[in-house]
Design goal:
The mean pLDDT is about 90. α3 (about 95-105) packs parallel to α4 (about 125-135). The protein is α/β, with parallel strands linked by helices. It is globular, with a radius of gyration of 16 Å. The chain has four helices and five strands. α2 links the parallel β2 and β3 (about 85-95). Strands 3-2-1-4-5 form a five-stranded parallel sheet, sandwiched between helices. It has helices at about 20-30, 50-80, 95-105, 125-135, and strands spanning about 5-10, 35-40, 85-95, 110-115, 140-145. The chain has a single domain (about 5-145), classed as HUPs (Rossmann fold), CATH 3.40.50. Bound molecules: adenosine-5'-triphosphate (ATP) and manganese (II) ion. Adenosine-5'-triphosphate binds near residues 15, 121 and 128.
Length: about 150
């Protein structure tokens, strides 16, 4: 298996970070790039609910979220990936699982590494991980995380 690009999706939770040791060791082993993706869940599609003024506010909010997300992705790279030589940041807007699947195709990702759970960390398997596992065209490494509840 030739692994050039590894995708680590994160919702910025501590639980998502449990995948990092695996991401880093695979990256070192293959000399691969790490693609990191955060998906902003879209609120703008409810536009029937907002008047013209509110739509502008929603747009401002989304722009702010995008700026903050890019900054947080940079912080992750500074904190966990010394020098970040092969680190590529992605921010998308929409449904997390759908955007993860889109990025796999777009960036020709070879393998996805992600935690079984995310911010919610319920007893049941995370819904994003489950959807990605079911539909991904490439191998997905799921790092099991003990759920908190
Ligand atoms: P729930 O299904 O109730 O949200 P959860 O938060 O515990 O439960 P998931 O959301 O499936 O579980 O999170 C599992 C993994 O999916 C995360 O560790 C992360 O890799 C990815 N993920 C979840 N949300 C996002 C997001 N907004 N952007 C990028 N990756 C995400
Ligand atoms: Mn979640």
């Amino acid at each position: 298996m030739d692994v050039k690009r590894i995708l680590w999706p994160t919702d910025f939770s501590n639980i998502a970070e449990k995948a990092l040791p695996h991401v880093k060791s695979l990256t070192a082993q293959y000399g691969a790039e790490i693609h990191v993706l955060y998906v902003i869940e879209d609120v703008a599609h409810h536009d029937g609910w907002y008047g013209a003024f509110e739509q502008k506010r929603v747009k401002d909010l989304m722009q702010h979220a995008e700026k903050t997300a890019t900054h947080r992705l940079s912080q992750l790279c500074d904190k966990y990936m010394e020098g970040c030589p092969l680190y590529i940041k992605h921010v998308a807007v929409g449904d997390p699982a759908k955007e993860i699947l889109k990025l796999i195709e777009k960036e020709k990702v070879d393998i996805v590494v992600m935690a079984s759970h995310g911010a919610k960390g319920n007893f049941r398997f995370g819904s994003v991980t489950e959807k990605v596992l079911k539909s991904s065209p490439v191998p997905v490494t799921v790092v099991p995380v003990e759920p908190s509840k």
